[in-house]
Specification:
Blueprint (H helix, E strand, L loop, with lengths): L5 H20 L14 E8 L3 E2 L3 H11 L4 E4 L6 E2 L4 E8 H31 L6 E3 L9 H10 L13 E3 L1 H7 L2 H11 L5 E5 L2 H10 L3 E5 L3 H11 L4 E5 L7 H5 L5 E3 L2 H4 L6 E6 L1
Parallel strand pairs: 6-11, 7-8, 8-9, 9-10, 10-11
Antiparallel strand pairs: 1-5, 1-12, 2-4, 3-5
Helix pairs in contact: 1-2, 2-3, 3-4, 5-6, 6-7, 7-8
Length: 282
């Protein structure tokens, strides 16, 4: 599993916010110039639906890059659940700065809270089992690290970050290498320090992979009965991940097979942004 580090998250956050503000502000926020330059404002961000909050750091970074004097005070922390009408944070500072940063700040907060909320929903479904839910690389472009952080705030876990930090050997890789065993052997030679995961599509391929001893075997679109068989054959000797075709209806039954992980692209790609409001007073 990938662990989201605070240092890398901060660097990514600064870069993302700088780009987002450049995209939104361009040559200048002409509408906010209607407000007197010395006007001080206070704003409250409120939840308009139930949610798991995520994105505090991005909100703070937005206003810091616009105006370091803006102060954000949080009523909740990332990972907290909020109810309809609950206050999430208070923001105070130059009114122009608050207005300029409003949309970008809310975009991050709504999107990441949506990811965390969806992750918490699926996490709750498998409570009482030993399985853990993983995200995938099906993230919004440019927001991979942010969404992986949000997934963790929702109680799930993060798979590899990208193509560079772990092997994930799939059908085309296997075909090009001449077989499962040869692909795994080549991966071990190429980067012995990197985790090796191989995807298999049936029990025969699973047995071949088991003999080649990767770190993890991904059971792609296996039926529940075959997942149970794979768990029995592995006997704890290799980490097993179920993936592909997992739905809300089948998730619990798959989790009860004893598989270690279940990966779900839906955690990050099918999110619904949380409805929030920011009201300004001066």
């Amino acid at each position: 599993m990938y662990r989201v580090g605070k240092k890398s998250l901060k660097v990514d956050m600064q870069r993302n916010v700088a780009f987002a503000l450049s995209e939104d502000i361009g040559s200048g926020d002409i509408t906010s110039e209607l407000v007197p330059g010395d006007c001080i404002g206070k704003a409250v961000v409120t939840a308009k639906e139930k949610a798991v909050v995520c994105g505090a750091g991005w909100v703070e970074e937005v206003f810091f890059q616009i105006d370091p004097k803006v102060k954000v005070d949080w009523c909740v922390t990332d990972g907290d659940r909020v109810e309809v009408g609950q206050e999430i944070c208070h923001i105070a500072g130059n009114a122009r700065s608050l207005l300029t940063g409003e949309r970008t700040a809310l975009n991050y907060l709504q999107t990441l809270s949506g990811t965390a909320t969806r992750s918490r929903f699926f996490c709750k479904l498998i409570e009482g089992t030993s399985a853990k839910l993983l995200d995938t690389r099906k993230t919004l472009p440019g927001l991979r690290l942010a969404q992986k952080y949000a997934v963790c705030c929702g109680g799930c876990h993060s798979h590899r970050m990208g193509l560079y930090d772990a092997f994930l050997i799939k059908e085309n890789h296997i075909s090009a290498c001449g077989g499962i065993a040869m692909a795994i052997e080549q991966a071990k030679r190429l980067a012995p320090e990197r985790p090796i995961e191989v995807e298999v599509e049936d029990l025969e391929e699973f047995k071949q992979a088991l003999e080649a001893r990767p770190d993890t075997i991904m059971l792609d679109n296996f039926c529940v009965e075959d997942i149970r068989t794979a768990v029995s054959l592995a006997a704890g000797g290799v980490t097993l991940e179920a993936s592909g075709g997992v739905t809300e209806a089948t998730l619990i039954e798959i989790a009860r097979t004893g598989v270690d992980y279940i990966s779900l692209g839906t955690l990050t790609k099918d999110l619904k942004a949380i409805d929030l409001s920011m009201r300004l007073s001066m």
